[in-house]
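Homework help board

Subject: predicted structure for assignment chain

Our instructor gave us this sequence and asked us to write out the predicted structure in token form, then describe one feature. I got the tokens but I'm not sure how to describe them. Can anyone check?
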Amino acid sequence: MNVKPLGEKILLKRLEAEGKTAGGILLPETAKEKPKQGTVIALGDGKLLENGERARFQVKNGDKVLFNSYGSTEVKIDGDEYLLMSEDDILAVID
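My token output:
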């Protein structure tokens, strides 16, 4: 399925949770914390400005990003989980 976010929305794929601690202890699925990192999958058209133009995004498809954990909506597409959020909820791009 092809998904195109609207306006200033961004579609992300969350990175996988770590399976063990820094000390080497394996974690069960229920104890894993959801990562606040993801990969940009799709972008909308950009925020609509007062002059009628669209603002450019500061991220692009394929970027790895850090995001705010409370500003997104979880969606399932073809059995995979994604996050849909505004660009304002993205905190940084990871190199």
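Reply (TA_rk): Your tokens look well-formed. For the description, you could write something like this. The chain has one domain: 9-18+29-94. That's the kind of observation they're looking for.
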